[in-house]
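Internal ticket #5521
Category: modeling
Description: The requester needs a full-assembly model to guide mutagenesis choices. All entity lines are attached below as received. Residue total reported by intake: 491.
Assigned to: D.W.
Attached entities:
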Amino acid sequence: MKSVILEKIIIEVINLSKQYGGKDVLKDISLKVYEGDTVVIIGPSGTGKSTLLRCINLLTKPDSGIIKLDDIEITSPETNGDEVRQHIGMVFQDFLLFNHLTALGNVSIGLTKVLGMREDKAKEKAIKELERVGLGENVDQYPGQLSGGQKQRVAIARSLAMDPRVILFDEPTSALDPELIGEVLEVMRMLVKEGMTMLVVTHEMGFAREVADRIVFIENGGVVEEGPPNELFYSPKVERTREFLWKIAELYGQNQERSIDGDDQ
Amino acid sequence: MTEWMQILVNYWPEFVRGAKITIQLTLVGLGFGAILGLLSALGRVYGGKWVRRISVGYIELFRGTPILVQLFIVYFGFPDFGITFSRMMSAFIVLALNSGAYQAEYFRGAIQAIGSGQMMAARSIGMSRIKAIRYIILPQAFRIVIPAWSNEPISLLKASAVVFLIAVPDLMAQAKTIAARTFEPIGSYIAVAIIYLAMVIVLTMILNFLERRYKIPGLETEAQRT
């Protein structure tokens, strides 16, 4: 890995807390994502993983704590959230493509309406991004005409088009049929290779083990354990981590094997 | 049986004159109603506390009272406060306000059917709320709303007949005059009913065309799902 001194922190979360209806969703959570790193967040459902991503993207307001993007505090009241979100990509579990726009329109609308890029320039870039995720043939199709895997790849292209500093993935494969998961993971692997900074919430342990620089295990709104995949998978320090990974392996066993098989190709 | 045909032929110019005014009333009511309806639907869904209250108040007030009462208040009541509108102006104002209240509810239904996910996705690429509404929410809402909203032009066209009660010379007023002149009320009213029916059929054809024209593959099912 890269030497620690040269690495630049892209996202830094410091003592973030969030309550919903008196219940702690995030408890004093801290997290760092270095440039070019892929950090995978794992943990049981309803433990605040999605909330954490939404806080980072300023879609949800935390109760306390600080979030920094490129060393600038974005949780301060003077921050323009719209401006910040231009630099943070987000990929959702249920794709959330704009249903009235073609694949091309989905990718280019941010360029024209947010960045003010000229129509033809935006189209050119959007086509390039769609080709990058392997959808050069599907530019004129509407979301309703695409498969789940294709939709999610359009969503990734939509994020990429904005040239974000970091992309947040919120369970990007959880809503997909098993046979469509591979194509999305493949695109994500490509991004890892290209050096994109990514923060990924997923249950795909094979993928996590393969590409993550660091894995963070979150439960009940707090970090239980974090470390490089080998450490977490083979010699977890906390008993609860071992227990969770064992349970996940049992549940998602087949997926895990398939994903690992995928690496060898 | 041929009474109404006779009347239709003999009084064709009068019917045309009346129909022109009816169409005018419908178009103006529909147009301004659409603006009012859209604004109050947006106010009701996205507005702060007070904007929401004002929107709901307006919608309930105009949906909750008979259009005839609204018309009489504006035409006969407002002069007491020193505000006088012509017959035609009173009819325009009341039809627009009344239609706006109904259209608001159609638009609100469509906006809410799109779901909060679309807004979140739009915000996630850096769009402001206004831009998200303008470029993501409304284009979808307009398409989803067409089938339900199609009731409104039809129902407004027919409802506009009440304006003859403040002596606006619309289609209905012409029928009344002709009935009095010919002493053949049944024939006159059947004739006018047929003209209304013909206008509604044409309108329905236009609306069906619009629905097909703006259809997007998978949009409705997708929107209902999210």
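Resolution: model delivered.
Comment from assignee: The radius of gyration of chain B is 21 Å.
Ticket closed.
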